[in-house]
C-alpha cells in the first residue's frame, strides 16, 4: 500500500514508494520526486490527510499506478 503525500507548497499529491517513510525528506515518490530540502506532508493531522486527498495526483505517479494495476 502506498502513502499519498505532498510538499509544503505543493499543488499536486504524490504516492510514496512502498516501504518509504513520509518522515524522511529523501523518500522518493513513485515518480522519483523527493521532498528535499523540505518534508512530506499528508500523514499528520486530519487537515493534512484531507489536503493530500483533495490534491490531484501528479501525472508521473498516476501513470505508474495505472501501469502497476495493469491498465493503460
Features:
2 strands; 72 residues; two-stranded antiparallel sheet; 8% strand
Task: State the gist of this model.
The protein has 72 residues and is α+β, with helices and mostly antiparallel strands.
Mean pLDDT: 91
Per DSSP, the total helix count is: 2
Strand order of the largest sheet: 1-2
Class based on secondary structure composition and strand pairing: alpha+beta
Beta fraction of the residues?
A: 5-15%
**What radius of gyration results from the CA coordinates?**
11 Å
Write down how many β-strands occur, each being a DSSP E stretch of 2 or more residues: 2
What's the number of domains? 1
Order of helices and strands: EEHH
Molecular structure report:
The protein is α+β, with helices and mostly antiparallel strands and 72 residues long. The chain has one domain. Strands 1-2 form a two-stranded antiparallel sheet. The longest helix has 10 residues. The protein is globular, with a radius of gyration of 11 Å.
Amino acid at each position: 500500500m502506498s502513502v499519498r503525500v505532498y510538499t509544503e507548497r505543493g499543488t499536486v499529491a504524490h504516492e510514496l514508494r512502498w516501504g518509504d517513510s513520509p518522515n524522511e525528506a529523501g523518500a522518493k515518490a513513485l515518480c522519483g520526486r523527493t521532498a528535499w530540502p523540505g518534508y512530506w506532508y499528508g500523514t499528520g493531522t486530519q487537515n493534512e490527510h484531507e489536503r493530500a486527498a483533495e490534491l490531484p495526483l501528479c501525472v508521473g505517479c498516476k501513470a505508474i499506478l495505472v501501469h502497476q494495476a495493469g491498465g493503460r
